[in-house]
Amino acid sequence: MDALLDVKDLSVGFKTYMGKLKVLNGVDFSVNEGEKVGIIGESGCGKTTTMKSILRILATNAVVEGGEIRFRGYQMLSLDKKKLNEVRRKNLTMIFQDPTSALNPVFKVSSILGDVIKSSGNIEGEKATKQLVREKSLDALKEVSLPDPERVLDSYPFQLSGGMRQRVCIAMSLATAKDLLIADEPTTNLDVTIQDQVLRLMKDLVSKKNLSIILISHALGTIRNTVDTVYVMYGGCMIEAAATGKLFSNPMHPYTQGLLKSVPKLTGAGFSEGIQGRIPDYIDPPTGCRFHPRCEYALEICRKEKPRLLKADADNHRVACWLHNKR
Amino acid sequence: MRIPEIMRKIFIRYDVKRKWYRFSRSSLSKVGLVIALVSVFLALAAPYVTPYPKHAGLITNFKDKFEPPNLSYLFGTDELGRDVLTRTIFGFQYSLMMAAVVLALVVPPGVISGLVAGYYRGTWIDTVIMRVSDVFIAVPPLVLALSIAAVLTPSVFNAMMAVSLMWWPWYTRLTYNAASGLRNEYYVQASEVMGVSPLRIIFGEILPNCLGPILTKITLDVGWVILLGSALSYVGLGAQPPTPDLGTMVANGGNYMPDAWWISIFPAVAISIIILGFNLLGDGIRDIFVEEAR
Amino acid sequence: MRLSIYILKRTAYIVFSLIGLSILVFALARVLPGDPARMVAGPRASEAVVEQIRKQLRFDRPLYEQYFYWLNDLLHGDLGYSLVTRRSITADVLEYLPTSLELIFLAAVFEVAGAFVLGVIAGRYSYKWPDNIVRVFSYVGISIPVFVLAILFQLLFTWNVKLFPTSGMLSQGLERPSVVTGMVTLDSLIAGRIDVFGNVLWHMVLPAMALCLGGMLQDARIIRSGMVENKDKDYISMATSQGLPERQVMFKYLLKPSLIPAVTVMGLDIAALMANAFLVEMVFNWPGFSKLGITLMLNKDLNGIVALVLVLGVIYAVANIVVDIIVAYLDPRIRLMERGE
Questions:
Q1: Chains linked to A by 3 or more Cβ pairs within 8 Å
Q2: Is the pLDDT of residue B169 over 50?
Q3: Interface test with B, best of A17, A48, A52, A98 (most B CBs within 10 A)
Q4: Which whole-number Å values give the CA distances from C146 to C26, C211, C295, in the listed order?
Q5: Average pLDDT of B41-47?
């Protein structure tokens, strides 16, 4: 069966005053229909960039160097503007990390929510009157369990709390039917007490609407409880991918192993160990496998050639590592 | 070797390489730098590089009056036969001198009052300083300068005084905005808790972080002061004849337009070029201090 | 806080500044050497006359008393007695100021319209040739002093190419319509003289353009920078990712936050037009307050200068308040900031 979303060998760079930041270095990654995929990785490894590439909302100094992104058979990177907007309206949607900066500060919620609803075309053949649009906006807000949706609808973003803003963003993303929801660290910027609520809300909506979802997060615990498949990202490429249970019980890539060992445990003795070294410099990145300078198992070949994300065993557990890839 | 070592230290301490990189990304900024340097050079070396240095002073040369630009008088001559090119270059002297004097007088009190007001934000010190400076900002700069100059006898010195008197509050306001933003930063509060004296905090921690906008403004202001000064001279309140001041020359040449256009136009273009140069330079300096977007 | 309270606060603030300003200029004017009573009376008047004048104009009183009386007169609409024109300054001001105001008004209209159009084009096509042209011209426009620009315009468009009249307000043979508002354009419309209206307008175009060009280009750049800076902001990415039409994202969601810093600057610029009008009027011999001002200055008419500066200050302040109101309307954060975040 063809995957819903298939990213192959994606490479993206950014032009800056210091040179070109070669952030994405051949990303391989896919999502199937109905699948819940999680992506974990440190800050700066390229998770958000990958997602933005799918929706083609990269910054103006970004350059796509190679690779392809296929969504439902469309070649996303070369799709014409009209079709692209259609896909954005009908199929894909994204929730951003910081709800404060994601909402235009000088417009009321009703404006942008209304415009999103209006642009999704005639709703069931009815004309988009102000009344109707307002009704549907209120419906969308009610779906995300916002108390007093009338007030929220007529407010400016700065008049709402962080949790409320994120709910508004979620409402906007899901106001019209979608296939795939991309959630980029949706709860990282929220208070701990709110995080759980918002996460549960998302889980409910995902199952209610039969969405496929890509969830990006730092919080390993959240990932573990939410998704079916986990991808681990480092230095601009996916280095491991497996079913959730398998990844956590049997990490194969040295980075993943180090990552899981770094999580402090409440029981047992001793401090957690970190991973020695630092994340790669994207202007002058390490050759071959970008993790090799920090890896205690590094081989000669690791320095020379970049490993691809290939199956390491029968269970579709994939690793990009020369320790496991057959030559 | 000693000297490269010191240079290296300066380069690192003040992050010169990165600053130069940011500055030189825009070729316009480099053009501005060149213009500014050339202007300063001409101003300093005026008596030595001009063809007819004497024409800058009290002299008449009636046999050559109203000559259009030609080989011996590149910019032509004016109604008294004086070489316009020479007088224009001497005009640079007056303009840049005015800018230097005014800024030297204005920047220290302006910046210091702004820092103090910003540090003591919310107290009576803040209110007093800012209200006083608001008085000067209540009226458009040119009008205020004109009125002050009008009240005094027309002369270069008085024009400089007039401009200085109304210029300092802009620095107060600029520095105040920058300083009051920084005032509540953690590193300032940390120093206060440690018992560092306010003086050291203001000059050691707050001021260095305000330098960006201040230096930018100083550079841009060279242009503005020259503009204001030439406007005052044009109206007749600045330098008096026979002083070769660019504004006065433009005003004077206005009487002979459009026939002897060169008497006005060359000094006018010269003013514009100097101001343009410092504006471009100022933009470049602003680029140095701008945070690079992610 | 509500908009009305905001306005009141700003007004009080500015009145306070103006009082301070009046004290400043007043003090300066009185500090000069010379005998003001003698200056009024003229060099040939007898001592008795000078004394009389001194008493009449209160030059013999201490400084603060003089100020108090002056302020009192002011609040009654009496701007004082001009030492030079020998009549009430109020009358002088009413004669010359409105014509300046109409020139400034036209320039303001040009400036806002031009800045808007140029700025949006430059922002839309940023880094391409329309943007570069606007950028280059804006550097030039900012650097050329207003009076230089005026002279250049005069040279190019009235002498070299006779497109516009060289100077003055009305061509020969035409008369000013009877004074209703003092503004010739309005008065001529009121009097039904369309020919006079057209003629005055024709005389106004070039000075107005010279007046506003520098500001227009600068404002355009600010609009353009705002758009470029905000283009990569998250809320724009979000709107784009929702599939909203590009036109809507650009002209509704990008434009509004980008305009706000521009409006602030535009407001200041327009208020500053007043100062530059002085110079442009001189070049084009437009009968506005510059004529009055120059006479006052060259003759050292202290009363006149103080009064004129104050009037201009008031107008400037009013303009600033209007700008503040517009900005507060555009950016809800400013007026609603009291509660919430």
A1: B, C
A2: yes
A3: A17
A4: 29, 7, 21
A5: 86
Residue C274: is its pLDDT beyond 70? yes
Mean residue pLDDT of chain A comes to 86
Task: Considering only residues C235 and A60, tell me which one the structure prediction assigns the higher pLDDT.
Answer: C235
CA distances from B149 to B64, B139, C294 (A): 35, 15, 12
Q: Which one, of B84, B50, B119, B114, lies nearest residue B252 by Cα?
A: B84
Size of interface A-B (CB pairs under 8 A): 5
Q: Which residues of B touch C (CB under 8 A)?
A: 28, 131-132, 134-144, 146-148, 150-152, 223, 227, 230-231, 234-237, 250, 254, 257-258, 261, 264-265, 268-269, 271-273, 275-276, 279-280, 293
Query: Cβ neighbours of residue B76 under 8 Å, at least 6 residues apart?
Result: B66, B67, B68, B69, B70, B84, B260, B262, B263, B266
Region B235-245 average pLDDT: 78
Which chains touch B (3+ CB pairs under 8 A)? A, C
CB-count exposure of residue C228 (10 Å: 0-12, 13-18, 19+): middle
Per-residue b or e along A40-55, where b marks 16 or more CB atoms closer than 10 Å to that residue's CB: bbbeebbbbbbbbbbb
User: Shortest CB distance from C241 goes to which of A60, A88, A106?
Assistant: A88
Q: Say whether B21 and A17 touch across the interface (CB within 8 A).
A: yes
Q: What is the residue whose two structure tokens read 């009908």?
A: A90
Please report the DSSP string for A261-291 in residue order.
HHS--SSSSSPPP--SS-PPPSSSPPSSSTT
Q: What is the pLDDT at residue B292?
A: 46
Which residues in chain A come in under a pLDDT of 50?
Answer: none
pLDDT of res. C335: 59
- A115 with C243: Cβ contact below 8 A: no
Indicate whether C337 pLDDT > 60.
no
> Strands across the sheet with A19-31, in order?
A19-31, A5-16, A62-71, A74-75
Q: What is the pLDDT of residues A165-174, one digit of tens each?
A: 999 999 998 8
Find the CB nearest C243 among A86, A104, A156. A86
Give C236's contacts in chain A (Cβ within 8 Å). Answer: 104
For chain A, say whether C253 makes contact (Cβ under 8 Å): yes
Going by C-alpha positions, the residue among C206, C217, C203 that lies closest to residue C107 is C206
- HEC string for chain B: CHHHHHHHHHHHHCCHHHHHHHHHCCHHHHHHHHHHHHHHHHHHHHHHHCCCHHHHCCCCCHHHCCCCCCCCCCCCECCCCCEHHHHHHHHHHHHHHHHHHHHHHHHHHHHHHHHHHHHCCCCHHHHHHHHHHHHHHCCCHHHHHHHHHHHCCCCHHHHHHHHHHHHHHHHHHHHHHHHHHHCCCHHHHHHHHHCCCHHHHHHHHHHHHHHHHHHHHHHHHHHHHHHHHHHHHHHCCCCCCCCCCHHHHHHHHHCCCCCCCHHHHHHHHHHHHHHHHHHHHHHHHHHHHCCCCC
C157-174 pLDDT per residue, tens: 877 767 777 777 776 666
* Residue A242 near residue A213, CB atoms below 8 Å: no
Residues 267-306 of A with CB under 8 A from C: none
Q: What is the average per-residue pLDDT within C299-318?
A: 74
Mean pLDDT over all residues of chain B?
81
Does the pLDDT of residue B199 top 80, yes or no? yes
* pTM, rounded to two decimals: 0.74
Structure tokens at B117: 């007001």
Q: Is a pLDDT exceeding 50 seen at residue C52? A: yes
Q: Searching chain A, which residue's CA lies closest to the CA of residue B24?
A: A17
Cα A322 to Cα A242, A316, A327, C163: the distances in Å are: 17, 17, 8, 79
Q: Between the CA atoms of C207, C213, C215 and C216, what dihedral angle is there, to the nearest 10 degrees?
A: 120
